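hi!! sorry for the late reply, been swamped w classes. u asked for the two structures so here they r. pasted raw, havent cleaned anything up. first the sequence of the first protein and right below it the tokens
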Amino acid sequence: MEVSMLGVLPMALKAAVELNVMDILAQHAGAEAEGDGYLSAAQIAAHLEGRTASVEEAASALDRILRVLASYGLLASTTKATGPKTSYGLPAATSRFLRSTSSTSIAPFVLLLQHPVFWQTYNKFHTAVLHGGDLFARVHGLKAFSLIQTDAAFNQLFHHAMLALSHLVMNDLLAIYHGFQAFRSIVDVGGGLGACLSLITSKYPHIKGTNFDLPHVVAGAPTYPGVEHVGGDMFEAIPKSEAIFMKHILHCWSDDNCVKILTNCLNSLPIYGKVIFVEAVLPKQVEQDSDARASYNMDLVMLAFPDGGKERTKEEFEALSLHAGFSNLQVVCSIHGLSVMEISKT
């Protein structure tokens, strides 16, 4: 029975993020009532912006949402002998959903994956099985990246989500991966607004960074020390550098398109240059741990979004790399369910 209703959980989380519930708990739970880090639904409702319902009515609906989140451990809860029946607190892990902490929050990513654009596509998974082709284009009438380019609101949400994900991954990645320091120049292919590269060059100021993405993307990119924004098309040519970095790029594309991208990477590198890429790596057999489930879920997101995109096993990444002319794929380390991989030009 629970599995048949799992779609409710992400929408409850989306509602809590949109209502700033986590931020309210972080800001007010220590100062109100008993100062024990917990607030009742009514206390939270009193702080909701844009509320036209009474506190009592808002609290009644809110409590039902928060109860679901607490049952999955996304909120802490306590029941007191007197006063409100249940009060809610913020576990450390759930602080990732705070909207006020832009450098560590994944709230924009939650809002992106629960956006109607995605859910309308998820609702048609069965047609991908029956009819193949580009599921996103069949549902929305245009390809995913075309919609991002033409829909200003969705474009903003998409880039905010990618920025949030970049900060989450890169801050922790740079603490354990030290492969960037050997290079004097790095191109971030599909680097968006340049957030990843800015973190790399901040830690390694000797690196000349080139943030490479489509012209309309880099046109809105902020200025970062040591980073030059260059517009272009990775399917045509990639700026030359000693190393190339890609995060969550290959999973957006079909095998043939990945080989094209990697071949262009090969052509832009000197001998012994490297491509450093960050992707989920699917287990060889079905596993049930949280990292595996996250990669399987993201694989379905890829089915819903770009044409031909998918998550891959290590062996599949090796095959793509060899086809493009690289050798010796190495998985160097892992963080947040993602693997840092290196391939070399020899």
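now the second protein. again sequence first, tokens right under
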Amino acid sequence: MTEYSEFLESTPAHWNRFKMQEVGRIVSGGTPSRDVPSLWDGGIPWVTPGELTSLPTKEIHETAETISAAGLSGSGANLLPAQSLLITSRATLGARAVNSVPMATNQGFKSLVPFNEQMTDFLYHLVDKIKPEMVRRASGTTFLEISGSEFGDIDLSLPPTEEAVKIAEILDTLDAAIRGTEAVLAKLKAMKQGLLHDLLTRGIDANGDLRPTQPEAPHLYKQTPLGWLPKEWDCGRLEDYCSRICVGIVIKPADYYVEEGVPTFRSANVREGYIAESDFVFISPASNAMLHKSQIRKGDILTVRTGYPGTSAVVPEEYDGCNCVDILISTPLGSISSEFLCSWINSPFGKGQVLSGQGGLAQQHFNVGEMRELIVVKPSSAEQEMITSRIDTAEAKIQTEQKLLNKLRLQKSGLMDDLLTGRTPVTSLL
């Protein structure tokens, strides 16, 4: 029994079975000839699969390209009425949207015009459950594609219309909350980037305010290799402000792995400004003692070398004495705080140097020598603390919103499973 068959069997007895072709008209698409200009730019919206995979909402209102009436009639394209369900059927299978205005698609779709328009929103959510069956029925060597006959033959288990409408309303409400939270999160991240730029180029004066910009108060600034910076700030290479810059275990690290022992960091554990405490590997205490040069201490900065080079985090107290694999380790001197230095390296000022100076863009590999040459700034200790505090406040708001988003996504996932299988009935809400 397939995964989808098990899903169908789990639905309530009062839900009815249909074939896809029994609940709506299945419509394919097409592409007018690019060699005939008159077939294009005619005002009829024309959708490609890529527009659905990047669509932030359920509904699609406009398209990147339009075709003319001649383009519609002279190709395999068909005009879909509003409130149709557009479903991609080639390469990326199962991306979907509901069109708010009549539009056509290219040949990468098997769209559905429901016979009962009230079922459209429910069917939109149901596509998530249908995707594995679409993949199973698809064929092709270059890319997978499901035919119209195979798509139409897919079995569906559908609740009565009133139930379907209520289920869709609940899921739509959660989707709206998720989109709203995503928008707030994006705004907070943009605000943090703006704040970072100001804090790391203007700093904070003795009154706790951002300094005026260089054009507003040129006497407060000096020219440096990084541009105009406050006169009070020192500027130098990272090695000038660290007692140690080295790399973690690089020679056959897997030879040291054991089931339990000393947590050992890999690149995947180092995120921008924090440690991801999952998927650790472990080495024995004896190996950790032997590999003492790559041991990490509280306050060390760990920096990713490959994949996302420059991404850095500070080692918290609970991981003092642990080890790491193929990660750069920097131990700041007392004159510069770990948190400030980590923020600098993660900022566009630090990351920009990493990306321009790494040993090869194709490999995205950042080495110890380049790390030592990284140009950094050093305000006074008091100013470092104020700058770090403001960055932390901005990051805390982002993390709060991210936790809410994760919670909403988890709720949506659980509710989708419960509602689309009928495990959680909505009849009491009708």
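hope this helps!! also noticed smth abt the second:
The chain has three domains: 3-158, 160-232+380-430, 234-378.
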